[in-house]
Amino acid sequence: MEQEPVITNLQDDEKSTKMLSLVSHKLKTPLSIINGYSEAILSQSAKEKFSPFTAKALEEINKQGTKLCNLVDKLLFFNRVETLQAKDLAKKSINLKNLIKTSANDAISHDEETATVSAGSSVSKKGTFIEIDCPSNLEIQADEEMMAFLLEELLTNAIKFNNKAEKIIKVQCAHHGDSISISVRDYGAGIRPQDVNRIFERFYQVDDYFTGQIDGWGLGLPMVKKIVELHGGTISVISDRGLGSIFTVSLPVA
Ligand SMILES: Nc1ncnc2c1ncn2[C@@H]1O[C@H](COP(=O)(O)OP(=O)(O)OP(=O)(O)O)[C@@H](O)[C@H]1O
Ligand SMILES: [Mg+2]
Prior knowledge:
Elements (H helix, E strand, L loop, with lengths): L11 H32 L8 H32 L7 E5 H15 L5 E4 L2 E4 L2 E6 L5 E5 H17 L6 E10 L2 E8 L6 H4 L23 H11 L3 E7 L3 E9 L2
Helix pairs in contact: 1-2, 2-6, 3-4, 4-6
């Protein structure tokens, strides 16, 4: 008798998690090879000998390959977060301001433009400015990898859904009794009331003339919500179409 694939013995949720993981891993190896070779060719000194068309084609292959690789990585991370439980968190004491600075640098450098400049309590790049208002001694008890992802995701969204020539993003933290709040404010596209409650659904993206074509899966915010909840916190959004958004995460003081 033919042996059933292992995936069919699982519950629906478990099946889709396994399937996503399998597909992502299968895509990862050929993609790494494509990217590795195109990078190697592009970095050779003989590059100048290529015709402008060949050089442009290679650059495009590399750019799209890298994009695809990032998409697959996000899918793999989604799978990890989906199966994560509160008991799996590697909680420790983290300096919040330093974590925000690192995440701001990462969000800015993953954006597709020029170099990053970091000074004092702000992180900026040509046209993008992240202002950080956080007491230097504020510590949170959290899983550092998950919290860094959460902050980078909120900041990446604030940069991505923003077509202003000058993108100003403000991160504000405060300690109120038994909780710590972190809010990320942007002055970008904003979200319509009918979409605000849906943006935490898996694969939901608001796709219209305002934000243009969107990169990504629509998986960032569902993961952010899950990470906040695993830490016993809450997340809320205030948004005005055309004026911008404020995402506020509230974490209990452990
Ligand atoms: N700061 C923001 N301003 C305006 N719209 C936003 C903002 N953050 C999220 N959104 C809307 O919510 C949708 C869902 O966000 P989410 O981060 O889950 O997905 P994504 O950024 O489109 O893709 P991914 O995070 O998987 O790369 C976005 O597609 C966008 O329409
Ligand atoms: Mg996102």
